[in-house]
Amino acid sequence: MERLPKKNMRKEIGTAEKQYSRVQRPLLMALCLALALLLPPGCTGQEALPYPVKGEQNGGACLPNNDLLHVFQMQAPLPREKDSQIGEYVRRVYQDSKGHHWFATNKYGVARYDGEALQYFSVDEGLGGPVVTSIVESRNGHIWLATNGGISRYDGRAWLNFDKADGLPHSWAWSVFEDSRGNIWAGTEQGLARWEGNGFTAVAAPGMEGRTVWSIAEGPDGSLWFGTQDAGLFRYDGAEYARFTKSDGLPDEGVTSLSFDKEGRLWLGTMFGGLSAFDGQHFTNYAEQADFGGKEVWATLAGRDGEVWFGVEGQGLFRFDGKHYIQYGPEHGLEVRAVQTIFEDQQGRLWVGGGGGLYQLAGHQFFHVSKEGPWDGC
């Protein structure tokens, strides 16, 4: 792997904005506004470059390549009405077996787009809580959600909720997952639980009990992996639990997200240690190789094409092909700096959500998806 020095990485990722005089800037801004209103939206299909060749990439409006338009986009982005967003904070994106897309929000419950209409489900519709942080569909077609009011299950007609009184260690749930054997697992504010058919049972996992379980994933060999808030990473092989901490090479013991690539490597996002990968023997910590402007990674995705996507708090989205990093931000139409979810759907479309709403990638340009869409292409 090419090792990028931190100082060179920062130079490649960020350059200074062009300077304009106080007299020139208002004139340029007025001209840019006029052009932005007259020109129709449309994606250019240009390849995204590592930050930051100014003027070579388009702004969030998918406008033609033009340095003046670029200055307008960066200096005075058009305001977006909060009421038009799926949610001001989109925590998860998921697609069920029917092809319906589900969007977890930090305030409005969950929204479902069935190809024709967008429908919200929150407390008034029977959801356990308005904060949704995880979504999964079980093999019988039920939708399970982790909420701040426990685990909610939807059978297509009504919601059924499970909290501490139903066996969860805590009523605030962070993660929910179905393994290849059909077992439903729930990570809560104070430990792990497993569905037993009519309720949950707390799992006695040494070192994980009483700890917040943020993320769950399954490896190619059927082993289950659990990321916790401050107790590190856990592996369950069906018989016993193994724990990995900083003493084993883990960069940080707050593991926010987990994703396996097609080679069987586990990619991890951590709270204070950045992006890491585990090959079964050793951890590779990428924050030691390049400076991404921060080390708080809340979302990771190992894509089907072998590339890895991850978000860095305050810095937007990164794509890693094994040698090079490409950063996506406002210049590519992506106005989410706090990335919470990265999802590749059945059609191969990439969705990104977080603080700033919901976005989809079209070619090499992102476009904003509001309550009215667009749902496929900008």
UniProtKB/TrEMBL annotation:
Superkingdom field:
Bacteria
| Name of the molecule in the record | Histidine kinase
Species this protein is from: Phaeodactylibacter luteus
